[in-house]
Amino acid sequence: MIKKILLQLTKGAVIGVNAGLLISLAFSYLLKLNEYVPAPPRFLNHFHNQTNAMLVSVIIWAVIGGVFSCTNLIFSEFDWSITKMTIVHFGITFFLFLPLALIAGWFPFSLFNISAFFVEFGIIYSIIWIISMLQTKKEINKINARLLK
């Protein structure tokens, strides 16, 4: 199990860094900035130079990727109901992702912002969950159709 977790952590970290880099590039272009910024100004202001800010951003992106990748093991390693797996997965990812989003400066710390983040996270999580369930149902139907032949 440790080997599986380390593999997931490594894969997730690579995906997280690449996703973070692409998203930060997209925001730099969308905001029509003259220079690349890896994070919002409230995050960048904590650093003496851009290189340190970039290094910490990469670490945050890697940890985010690792969190989401490792928590997906809940769906393959536990013999729970889909409801229990989903609730546990949602709770763990939310409570691990929230401090990372705060550290990254994506929004200021306040009860209102955390509540809004919870709602946004829940909506995005629900959309991804529904898509995953539909894909799984489609795959099960394909397998059942092959078995009936």
Structure described in brief:
This protein is an all-alpha fold and 149 residues long. It has six helices and no strands.
What are the SSEs and their pairings?
Layout: H1 2-30, H2 41-44, H3 50-71, H4 74-77, H5 82-103, H6 111-148
Transmembrane segments: 12-31, 51-75, 87-108, 114-134
Keywords: Membrane, Transmembrane, Transmembrane helix
Protein name: DUF3021 domain-containing protein
Q: How does this model look, in words?
A:
The chain has 2 domains: 2-106, no CATH class; 110-149. It contains 6 helices and no strands. It has helices at 2-30, 41-44, 50-71, 74-77, 82-103, 111-148. The mean pLDDT is 92.
Low-confidence stretches: none
Task: Please state the CA-atom Rg, rounded to the nearest Å.
Answer: 18 Å
Kindly state the number of beta strands.
Answer: 0
- Judged by helices, strands and strand pairing, the structural class is mainly alpha
Count of individual domains: 2
Strand content: under 5%
User: Could you describe the largest sheet, including whether it forms a barrel?
Assistant: none
Question: What's the helical proportion of residues?
Answer: over 70%
Mean pLDDT: 92
Order of helices and strands: HHHHHH
Q: N-to-C terminal Cα separation, in Å?
A: 37 Å
Shape: elongated
Number of helices: 6
